[in-house]
Amino acid sequence: xxxxxxxxxxxxxxxxxxxxxxxxxxxxxxxxxxxxxxxxxxxxxxxxxxxxxxxxxxxxxxxxxxxxxxxxxxxxxxxxxxxxxxxxxxxxxxxxxxxxxxxxxxxxxxxxxxxxxxxxxxxxxxxxxxxxxxxxxxxxxxxxxxxxxxxxxxxxxxxxxxxxxxxxxxxxxxxxxxxxxxxxxxxxxxxxxxxxxxxxxxxxxxxxxxxxxxxxxxxxxxxxxxxxxxxxxxxxxxxxxxxxxxxxxxxxxxxxxxxxxxxxxxxxxxxxxxxxxxxxxxxxxxxxxxxxxxxxxxxxxxxxxxxxxxxxxxxxxxxxxxxxxxxxxxxxxxxxxxxxxxxxxxxxxxxxxxxxxxxxxxxxxxxxxxxxxxxxxxxxxxxxxxxxxxxxxxxxxx
Length: 398
Known about the structure:
The protein folds into three domains: about 1-45, no CATH class; about 55-145, Phosphorylase Kinase, domain 1, CATH 3.30.200; about 145-345, Transferase(Phosphotransferase), domain 1 (Orthogonal Bundle), CATH 1.10.510. It is of the alpha+beta class and about 400 residues long. The strands form two sheets. A six-stranded antiparallel sheet has the order 1-2-3-4-6-5, covered by helices on one side. The protein has a three-stranded antiparallel sheet with strand order 7-8-9. The protein has helices at about 40, 45-50, 105-115, 150-160, 165-180, 215-220, 240-245, 250-265, 275-285, 290-295, 300-310, 325-345, 375-395, and strands at about 60, 65-75, 75-85, 90-95, 125-130, 140-145, 150, 195-200, 205-210.
């Protein structure tokens, strides 16, 4: 499920946790939101709730001093912390104590955390450490701290998003997925909150994909949605085969990419409902409404719409088969758009059939300064032409 904002703000329509900020509409269902009072965001209640957290100010594993709670969800809490030896800001995720009672979950956590730490890609979040806190036995993961905002905030603050920017951002997401899939790591919980966008010097919209392997770590061999303490994915982004408990491969992550592209293109989710089961039923059975029909003002091309619908195929065999194939298809759309824009900038003649048809009529004659020629000039030219024609006829037949 989505991580909850510590402020506790939620949409009154769909009850989902809202990202921080003074949003006017829900990024999930589009419902109008009531005005947020300043006291509810930064008032004493909010600060007291943070300061009451028992771990704030504590040092985990003798190396990581916890500074601030930045989020929490079904699997635990996320803190901003400082690596004391390196004097470096890090992100520390602590799993909820209830999960420690399941040795299967603990064992899989340790194996999968090790696998995630071995992922080495610029667009994948770097796992720095993981282990068990000596004081209370809590399992934790330490990751690099990313400055920027997630795609849910981009959707909230910056929609509509240009197609070229969509291609640039999601191509990086797919590059990170390709590296993970090569190491047999399936994300299983890819969603806008798990994609961070940084504005680096000379690298605008640099992407970091978060939580690789976490959903798989916390999953068990039981059927999905049968254990309340296990995160199996977010229904709005789950592939049909994931919703039905079928065997999964990397193509379930590519379906989630298609969902995110759809949402970023239209500002809306393709499948939603009043409950998780309603959403999963629609994921399995209903075809998506084409993006440009869902949102006629969506700034996307026919090629992008076709690619999104292909990624959302119920049958995994009809989707792009690898993250790299999907990435190349996105980059091809971007290259085609760039070429079209360059042609327009240089005045290249449009392709046949794209020029407007004009009704036949007299050609406008212009004099040197660009003004239309007066009518007497037309009669003078006509008279001169007639005279020349007469001379030619006289010499020919005279």
